[in-house]
Structure formats: structure tokens, C-alpha cells
Design goal:
Length: 281
């Protein structure tokens, strides 16, 4: 052990040797902020997952909306669009850690559902966004922007009370499964090995904490374009099958449709959801 006096002398000597023009050390680069993704705002429903979502602009008094898949309502027609259907469906609101419940949310109506072009459903609940805050939770914000390439994402399953973390591996021109065709689907890297029950889970951008998609399917058996075995079809019609890979549907196109009051306005500028008159069952 060095003696304290010797240490002090050495310190003074080293300080006197430093030139007056010395350049300070460069600060270490700051890592980009990352959201702490947990189960806040997520729900469990019969056979599926979901989340309470809100657009960037909303009022605390607005009825809270729950988002899940259209196929979690029922298997809809290939071109079917459901609007303002009465519903009393119940959702279990999870706490942040996912190991408990904060209460039960109840739907007043199914305001929108389709499996035409995308796979999404929105329920209006009897609770407001302010009610959610009083329960100790909050809604997840829907991103209004197209998600970037290669972003880190987390798929949060309220049904399994489990999270899946991976990256967006790309965007699919058309994803075909049985009689359904979805456009612009997010493809996950292999780490997100989602399974039945994760349908309807929010896909969260880890960098922002915002929802960029809704999880809906995966190729289970390596089959080509069959139920539970979606295939990718590019702009030239070439088909690719990726066994074990999961997919979600983008949600940025929903934001312009949410005009307040728990409503979905399909005529709002920029709304990217299918309208009933575009087709029928």
C-alpha cells in the first residue's frame, strides 16, 4: 500500500506536468432512449390478446378503445367490414408486470372489424381514458407514422402474459392465408416465435413505446398459403413460404380514422381502413 504523503506528492507532480492547452476528453456517446415496454394497457380476452389504444390527439373523457384482431371477433368474410355492432364483450386489464388484474373492461359496441386488407377490430368500452388512469393504467398510443426498417419491437401478449422481442425483418407486399389477403404486413425476425393466443397483441416500437402494429399470424407447418400457414406474394406474383415466421398488421393507417368520442370515421381524410361499400361477404 502506498503511503498517503507519497500519493499526494505524485498527484501534485502529475498536475503540474499537464500543459495549459490540454484538450478535455471527448464525452462518451449517449445511447438512444428506449421505452420500458411492459404489460401496461394490455388486455386478455377469450382466446386472444389485445390492448387499450388511443390516437395522439384524444380527450380524457373519450371512451377507451380496445384493439385486437378481426379474427378474434369471428372469422369474417374475405371482404367483410363490420360497423357499430352491439357488444358486451369483457376484457381483463393487466397490471404493468402482467401478474395481476386491475379490473374488467366492458365493451358497449364493436365499432369496427375487418379481415379485408388487414386484420383488426376496435371495441368501444364503457370506460374512459380517464377511468383507465384512475385504475392505475394508461392507454398505449398508436403511432401515426409508418414504422422504420429493422426496428426493435416487442409483441405483448395479454392472453399468455408473455412478451416476445425481436426486430422487423421487412414489409410484405401481400400476405395470403386461406381466403384472406393482407397488405403491408410486418415480418418478424425468428426471435418472435408467437403462437395461438397471441393474436391481437400490440406490436410496440421499443424506441418510442408506441404501437406500430397488431400481431395476427405465423406460418406453423411450412405449407403454402393455407390456414395458419400464410405465404408472401411480391409485386411480381412470386410466392415465398417462411416456416416458423410470425407477422403483424400495421396500424398507422388507423390513426386518421379515430376522430374522438370513441368513433371510427371511415370518411376522414387519410383514413386507411376498408369501407363496407368496397365489398361484401
Amino acid at each position: 500500500m502506498r503511503h498517503p504523503v507519497a500519493v499526494l506528492a505524485a498527484l501534485l507532480l502529475s498536475l503540474s506536468a499537464v500543459p495549459a492547452t490540454a484538450v478535455p476528453a471527448t464525452a462518451a456517446p449517449v445511447a438512444p432512449a428506449r421505452a420500458d415496454v411492459d404489460f401496461t394497457g394490455t388486455v386478455s380476452l377469450k382466446g386472444c390478446s389485445g390492448a387499450v389504444v388511443r390516437p395522439p390527439e384524444h380527450e380524457p373523457s373519450d371512451p377507451a378503445l380496445v384493439m385486437t384482431n378481426g379474427h378474434c371477433v369471428r372469422f369474417l368474410g374475405a371482404r367483410e367490414v363490420v360497423r357499430d355492432e352491439p357488444s358486451e364483450r369483457e376484457f381483463t386489464l393487466l397490471n404493468a408486470s402482467g401478474d395481476g388484474s386491475l379490473g374488467t373492461l366492458r365493451a358497449s359496441s364493436l365499432v369496427y372489424a375487418t379481415m379485408f386488407g388487414t386484420d383488426v377490430a376496435l371495441y368501444r368500452t364503457t370506460s374512459t381514458y380517464a377511468d383507465l388512469e384512475r385504475l392505475g393504467s394508461r392507454a398505449l398510443e398508436l403511432s401515426a407514422e409508418h414504422p422504420g426498417d429493422g426496428i426493435d419491437i416487442t409483441v405483448v401478449s395479454g392472453y399468455w402474459r408473455r412478451t416476445y422481442s425481436c426486430e422487423v425483418d421487412g414489409y410484405v407486399h401481400e400476405l395470403r392465408e386461406g381466403r384472406y389477403t393482407w397488405r403491408g404486413s410486418l415480418r418478424y425476425t425468428e426471435a418472435c416465435r408467437t403462437r395461438g393466443g397471441t393474436s391481437g397483441s400490440p406490436v410496440v416500437d421499443v424506441a418510442t413505446g408506441k404501437v406500430v402494429g397488431v400481431n395476427n399470424t405465423g406460418n406453423e407447418d411450412g405449407e403454402r398459403c393455407t390456414d395458419n400457414n400464410p405465404c408472401e406474394v411480391d409485386a411480381n406474383g412470386e410466392v415465398t413460404v417462411r416456416q416458423g415466421i410470425g407477422y403483424g398488421q400495421q396500424t398507422h393507417q388507423i390513426v386518421p380514422c379515430l376522430t374522438g368520442g370513441g368513433r371510427v370515421d371511415l370518411t376522414a381524410p387519410g383514413c386507411g381502413l376498408a369501407r363496407p361499400e368496397e365489398g361484401s361477404r
